[in-house]
Design brief:
Shape: globular
CATH architecture: 2-Layer Sandwich
Number of helices: 4
CATH class: Alpha Beta
Largest sheet: 4 strands, mixed
Order of helices and strands: EEEHEHEEEHEH
Number of strands: 8
Strand content: 25-35%
Distance between the termini: 26 Å
Structural class: alpha/beta
Oligomer: single chain
CATH topology: Ribosomal Protein S5, domain 2
Length: about 180
């Protein structure tokens, strides 16, 4: 289990995360019902056991800091030897959304969701996770359906990327950092 806590004058966020759960147990409490639903959806599709407890002064600060904390937890929990890449396409009613992720340590966000808040959530998550994340909305009229399909696609892509392997999937081998 990886635990990450982020505290500022605006928010207090704690994330507990375990990857690779066969029967994910998810408990999310941010005070924002739709955001809780999107986090729980992402976690279930990613096969994460996830507990999120968060409070904040404004919705923007809350969702951004939760996304940053979740991303950092994923970064800390990522095995050195994992599949590294994952991709998934999710149909949900009128929406069709694809997500592709590389958890290899290079942060980049490529995408555009109809809801600017969730576009920012996924950008913040990718940055803190050190992941390259591309989300492509193929079609969709209902912003709720597009956002939920995106969370499902990102979760499923993460599930594939974080699958443990016997070797490091990189021409560089395992990257080691030393900070003194």
């Amino acid at each position: 289990m990886t635990t990450v806590r982020r505290t500022t004058t605006e928010t207090d966020v704690t994330v507990e995360l375990a990857i690779g759960s066969a029967q994910p147990v998810v408990t999310v409490s941010t005070g924002d019902g739709f955001f809780d639903h999107m986090l729980a959806t992402l976690a279930r599709y990613a096969s994460f056991d996830l507990t999120v407890s968060a409070t904040g002064d404004l919705e923007h600060h809350l969702v951004e800091d939760v996304a940053l904390t979740l991303g950092r937890a994923v970064l800390e929990a990522t095995p050195a030897a994992c599949a590294r890449y994952g991709t998934a396409t999710i149909p949900m009613d009128d929406a069709l959304v694809s997500a592709t992720i590389d958890v290899g340590g290079r942060a980049f966000w490529g995408g555009s969701l109809p809801d600017r808040t969730y576009d920012h959530v996924l950008r913040s998550f990718a940055t803190a996770a050190g992941a390259t994340l591309h989300v492509v909305v193929v079609r969709g009229e209902d912003p709720h359906h597009v956002t939920e399909a995106a969370c499902k696609a990102v979760g499923l892509a993460l599930r594939h990327a974080l699958e443990a392997t016997s070797t490091v999937f990189s021409t560089k081998g395992q990257v080691r950092w030393e900070v003194t």
